Amino acid sequence: MKIAFILPGNNDTPVGGYKIIYQYANELMELGHEVTIAFMYHPYSKKILKVKKLELRLKKYLGRKGNSQNVSWFPLNNDIKIVQNLIEQDSLLHYDKVIATSPETATLLSRFSDKVGEKYYFIQNYEIWNLGEKKLKQTYLLPLKKIVIAKWLGEEVYKVTKEYPIQVPNFYDHSIFYIDKQIEKRQNVVTILNHGEPTKRTKFGLRVLEKVKQQIPDLEVYLFGTGEMPVGLPSYVQYFQKPTQNQLRSKLYGEAKVYLMPTILEGWSLTGMEAMASGAVVVGSNIGGLRDYITNDIEGKLVDVNNFDQYVNEVIHFLNDEESRVKYAKRALHSVEKHDINNSVQILLAALSTN
């Protein structure tokens, strides 16, 4: 098949949703399909949706600002065709399948004629941050075939369309995330993601760990993210900016007893799976996006998002109780192994073949 994915603008910065698409693109190429990745021009400008009126004006700026011309942070197959600054359908004619991956790209794709190919909307999160909830729900009604990554997203789409979309579950890279440091006898290390998006609640998580530190004096915290080191971190917090995947596996997840996830909105959090595959126990929020691969009190602990004290207590429990932590970590490791790209790509291909 000739398949195209439409992504928001390319800032050449690690993003979980982009990583999933890049992995699918590589795998589809290996299976003999022809793959294109098209980056939309200025996806977060409301005016971009009026493509025809702005086309000439935008063309004047192509190559001068907007998208990066490279994807340096992920090893894309060199034979994948890249289209930069997509604003009109002429760059995507005569594909078998064209897949939008965000509300903005879905809106753009819906404006293209059927000459581009059969049109899909691959929904990876409840993306209210750019369009707002009302406009997001309107995108679910666009004449595109819907695919979701998580059960809870399927339920949100059903509320609007009264039709259940096909679910294609996420996965992690088994060749990168695995046990290379034993689960037993780890030090009192907790790892947490640093992210500027308020729904990730990094500051909330650091307050939880400040409270944990009062009862676990030898606590060490590994904080990681793509941005600059936050100002005013306490001495027990070590910051890792743009860690490699090997660093994530071996150091950040591989030395941690607990991976703390106080986030309140996730399509399907990749970092939680990566941490589990590397031997850490997840203490996270009881939300869709975690429940698809963590059964509460079996593979990890899922906490009411407003229960600050329970976050504290669950982290302390796993730091103090070696037998319990190891039991949870081994169950999590066994459970998460089924989330493999080979399974997901076959489900995706089946979804693309469904009439």
Can you tag this structure with a few keywords?
Rossmann fold, 13 strands, single chain, 2 domains, 355 residues, 35% helix, alpha/beta, 7-stranded parallel β-sheet, elongated
Topology:
Layout: E1 2-7, H1 16-30, E2 34-40, H2 51-59, E3 81-86, E4 97-100, H3 103-111, E5 118-123, H4 128-131, H5 133-139, E6 145-148, H6 151-161, E7 166-167, E8 189-193, H7 202-215, E9 220-225, E10 237-241, H8 245-253, E11 258-261, H9 270-277, E12 281-285, E13 300-303, H10 308-320, H11 322-336, H12 341-352
Parallel strand pairs: 1-2, 1-4, 2-3, 4-5, 5-6, 6-7, 8-9, 8-11, 9-10, 11-12, 12-13
Helix pairs in contact: 7-10
Q: Overall 3D geometry?
A: elongated
The proportion of residues in beta strands is: 15-25%
Round the mean pLDDT to the nearest integer and report it.
92
Secondary structure: helix percent: 25-40%
Instruction: Provide the succession of SSEs.
Output: EHEHEEHEHHEHEEHEEHEHEEHHH
Characterization of this structure:
The strands form 2 sheets. Strands 3-2-1-4-5-6-7 form a 7-stranded parallel sheet, with helices on both faces. Helices cover 35% and strands 18% of the residues. The protein is an alpha/beta fold and 355 residues long. The longest helix is centred in the N-terminal third of the chain and has 15 residues. The chain has 12 helices and 13 strands. Helix 7 packs across helix 10. The chain has 2 domains: 183 residues, Glycogen Phosphorylase B (Rossmann fold, 3-Layer(aba) Sandwich), CATH 3.40.50; 148 residues, Rossmann fold, CATH 3.40.50. About 7% of the residues have low confidence. The chain is elongated and about 65 Å long.
